[in-house]
């Protein structure tokens, strides 16, 4: 463990010197404004679909840099274009939204914001997923690209997407003409900050990057009655309980060992009183998978088990299975991932570009890919390198995204995010029009 820690420290120090001197200077020049934006956004987070001030702040910075900015795309979304001669169109995307989480980091710039959520409840708000860092990185990158236009040619399309956490924003932007009113991107790029890597590093996952997500609401119909007379009822709570236990066998007995599948029952609602058997029970699931065929298998197994358990319990009618909008796994074009590794290594140092395993969360970037935009969605190290090394040595976990304690090591993470984005964009924007799509991986 000590050797590993030492190796990490050496890798990190090597990285600092390995950064391209010119790029490092450009990042230095863009950094103060990006950091100021980060601190502002972090202290003023806004909930999904309510990113009004957030969008204005980002739009203003981009407009000042010379971008042609359109606001209110798919709600509070923004699109900023910079046309710089002939070449492909490359999209760089950030999310805008924060979460209903009460910040407990104790940082001097911790959020103290409360706001009304869509159900009218007052909730605390925090950038617990790190989207403030993504916006600041995009703004810093926008600055470097705008001030060094001789280093690229083509069209840079910056997208600020609302409501990622609710998995609705990408679809709304697409429905509002993202790729009709604005140029259709040849390639897309996005990043996500994570404590699974130390600040200074980035992770590339070729192929499947995260999970398919499906949300199900299941209702079991029984026959209510007096709690003292169960023989006169059909108890939906007992059927639901049995169903939930049988669902656990999908993973254990049906899915091939080694294949990723998560079936989590996140809530169960049934009944009001101790002595009343209700006439229905409802529970909600989230299902996560990497592969489409496993997704189909698991969803079919859930439907079969739910129906069979209800029939076995004598339910008065077939249970209902309602599927909320899910999202597909983000797929990193393997050839694109291989191609962009080289400029990232040149920018950050070879040891700082790590091949990472797919992760279990989901997100709606997949909708952009489905529009025919091959993409690289990479991970940005967010953890304080010392804390990361300590956690590795002791086998503990640092707070994950969405935790009230999530606190990226801003300075190195933000600088690395900008450097990586600029390196990737310059590589993509130094090809002829259409070339990235047709010749991905041929370099
Ligand atoms: Zn999130
Ligand atoms: Zn996120």
How would you sum up this structure, described in words?
It is a single chain. Residues 1-17 have low confidence and may be disordered. Helix 2 (21-43) crosses helix 4 and helix 7 runs antiparallel to helix 8. It contains 13 helices and 18 strands. It has helices spanning 2-18, 21-43, 52-64, 131-147, 169-175, 178-181, 236-254, 292-312, 334-348, 366-370, 385-394, 410-428, 435-439, and strands spanning 68-73, 77-84, 89-95, 114-116, 122-124, 154-161, 187-198, 202-204, 207-208, 212-221, 225-226, 261-270, 276-277, 280-289, 317-327, 331-332, 353-355, 375-383. An eight-stranded mixed β-sheet has the order 1-2-6-3-7-18-8-17, with helices on both faces. A four-stranded antiparallel β-sheet has the order 12-14-10-15, covered by helices on one side. The protein has 443 residues and is an alpha+beta fold. The protein starts with a helix and ends with a helix. A hairpin with a 5-residue loop joins strand 4 (114-116) and strand 5. One zinc ion (ZN) is lined by residues 129, 165, 401-402.
Query: Low-confidence runs (pLDDT<50, min 5 residues)?
Result: 1-17
Mean pLDDT: 93
**Beta strand count:** 18
Shape: elongated
**Total helical segments:** 13
Bound ligand species:
zinc ion
Tell me the helix content: 25-40%
Q: What separation lies between the terminal Cα atoms?
A: 38 Å
Q: Report strand %.
A: 25-35%
Radius of gyration: 24 Å
Q: Structural class from helices and strands?
A: alpha+beta
What order do the strands of the largest sheet run in, or round the barrel if closed? 1-2-6-3-7-18-8-17
Biggest sheet architecture: 8 strands, mixed
């Amino acid at each position: 463990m000590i050797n590993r820690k030492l190796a990490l420290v050496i890798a990190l120090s090597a990285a600092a010197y390995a950064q391209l001197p010119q790029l490092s200077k450009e990042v230095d020049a863009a950094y103060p404004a990006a950091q100021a934006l980060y601190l502002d956004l972090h202290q003023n987070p806004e909930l999904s679909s309510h990113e009004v001030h957030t969008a204005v702040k980002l739009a203003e910075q981009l407009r000042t840099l010379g971008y042609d900015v359109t606001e209110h795309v798919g709600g509070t979304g923004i699109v900023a274009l910079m046309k710089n001669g002939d070449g492909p169109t490359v999209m760089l995307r950030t999310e805008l939204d924060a979460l209903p989480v009460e910040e407990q980091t104790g940082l001097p710039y911790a959020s103290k914001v409360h706001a009304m959520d869509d159900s009218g409840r007052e909730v605390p708000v925090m950038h617990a997923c790190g989207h403030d860092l993504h916006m600041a990185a995009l703004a810093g990158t926008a600055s470097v690209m705008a001030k060094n236009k001789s280093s690229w040619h083509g069209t840079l399309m910056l997208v600020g997407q609302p409501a990622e956490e609710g998995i609705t924003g990408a679809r709304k932007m697409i429905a509002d003409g993202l790729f009709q009113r604005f140029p259709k991107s040849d390639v897309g790029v996005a990043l996500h900050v994570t404590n699974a890597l130390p600040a200074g590093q980035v992770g590339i996952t070729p192929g499947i990057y995260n999970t398919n997500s499906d949300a199900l609401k299941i209702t079991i119909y029984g026959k209510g009655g007096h709690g003292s007379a169960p023989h006169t009822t059909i108890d939906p709570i007992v059927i639901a309980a049995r169903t939930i236990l049988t669902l656990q066998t999908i993973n254990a007995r049906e899915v091939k060992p080694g294949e990723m599948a998560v079936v989590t029952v996140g809530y169960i609602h049934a009944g009001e009183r101790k002595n009343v058997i209700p006439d229905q029970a409802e529970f909600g699931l989230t299902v996560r998978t990497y592969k489409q065929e496993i997704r189909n298998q698991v969803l079919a197994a859930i439907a079969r088990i739910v129906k069979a358990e209800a029939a076995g319990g004598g339910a008065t009618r077939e249970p209902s299975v309602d599927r909320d909008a899910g999202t597909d796994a983000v797929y990193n074009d393997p050839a694109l991932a291989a191609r962009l590794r080289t400029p990232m290594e040149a920018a950050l140092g070879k040891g700082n570009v790590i091949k990472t395993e797919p992760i279990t969360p989901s997100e709606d970037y997949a909708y952009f890919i489905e529009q025919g935009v091959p993409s690289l969605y990479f991970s940005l190290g967010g953890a304080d390198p010392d804390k990361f090394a300590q956690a590795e040595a002791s086998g503990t976990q640092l707070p994950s995204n969405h935790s009230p304690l999530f606190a990226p090591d801003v300075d190195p993470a933000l600088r690395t995010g900008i450097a990586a984005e600029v390196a990737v964009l310059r590589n993509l924007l130094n090809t002829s029009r259409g070339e990235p799509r047709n010749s991905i991986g041929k370099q």
